[in-house]
Design goal:
By secondary structure, the chain is an alpha+beta fold. It has 2 domains: 142 residues, Double Stranded RNA Binding Domain; 43 residues, no CATH class. Helix content is 23%, strand content 51%. It is built from 4 helices and 8 strands; from the N terminus they run αββαββββαβαβ. Strands 1, 2, 3, 4, 5, 6, 7 and 8 form an 8-stranded mixed beta sheet that branches. The longest helix is centred in the first third of the chain and has 17 residues. It is rod-shaped, with a radius of gyration of 30 Å. The relative contact order is 0.25. The N terminus is likely disordered.
Length: 213
């Protein structure tokens, strides 16, 4: 019974953790609070040229920016260019402890029975029922592999870039850690966290927790 109860609790805990993504989002920018009508184009870094993975993420960025009021445009008509960088590490072992639940004692007892008499003698037959109490009876150790995921988004003034200058209007970062070692599996959720309250207050860092998309 103790083992079954432990398995149920641990399974529920791991399931709940596995369906949520917690991310720290930080940004610096000089964008207006409502960047409506600003035109943009998403460009790859050199190492992303021809990447189907990048193209998938670029489409998601396009959709998110347009939901925030930006307008997608061909590169020659765009006011701003957007660059997206992403990475995931090889993981590290994280040790943790979890409680073991079981019977800790008895809170009360109740006895019932019958008395039988035979001439000058009597016998008693009864049953005692105990009410158990439950709680933490110990701990066990476990370990898991945790991966760090990072996304960076930069929005640059295209006219300055064409003149050989770097003039950013937005730079932001999302950092997340979890048991999923495949970036594509959590990328939609991380991007959703990125654009929660976008562009937000410059210099602000916030934690966003979302279910896996």
């Amino acid at each position: 019974m103790k083992r079954s109860l432990l398995v149920v609790i641990v399974t529920l805990t791991l399931t709940a953790c596995g369906t949520m993504v917690k991310a720290r989002v930080s940004s610096f920018h000089n964008l207006p609070a409502q960047p409506s009508g600003l035109t943009f184009a998403v460009l790859p870094y050199q190492w992303q040229n021809g990447s189907l993975e990048f193209q998938t993420y670029a489409r998601a960025i396009n959709a998110e920016l347009q939901r925030k009021g930006f307008v997608a445009a061909p590169l020659d008509q765009a006011q701003y260019v957007v660059f997206l960088a992403y990475a995931i590490d090889s993981g590290r072992e994280v040790r943790y402890s979890y409680p073991i639940y079981g019977q800790t004692g008895v809170s009360s007892a109740y006895t019932s029975g019958t008395v039988q008499t035979y001439s000058n003698t009597a016998s008693y037959s009864g049953t005692t029922t105990y009410t158990p109490t439950y709680g933490v009876v110990g701990t066990e150790q476990g370990s898991r592999t945790e991966y760090k995921r990072v996304i960076r988004l930069d929005i640059l003034d295209k006219s300055a870039l064409a003149a050989g200058q770097i003039s950013k209007v937005y730079e932001g970062e999302v950092v997340s850690a979890g048991s999923t070692g495949q970036l594509s599996a959590v990328m939609p959720t991380l991007l959703k966290a990125f654009f929660t309250d976008f562009p937000g207050k410059s210099g602000q860092s916030k934690t966003v927790t979302l279910p896996v998309q």
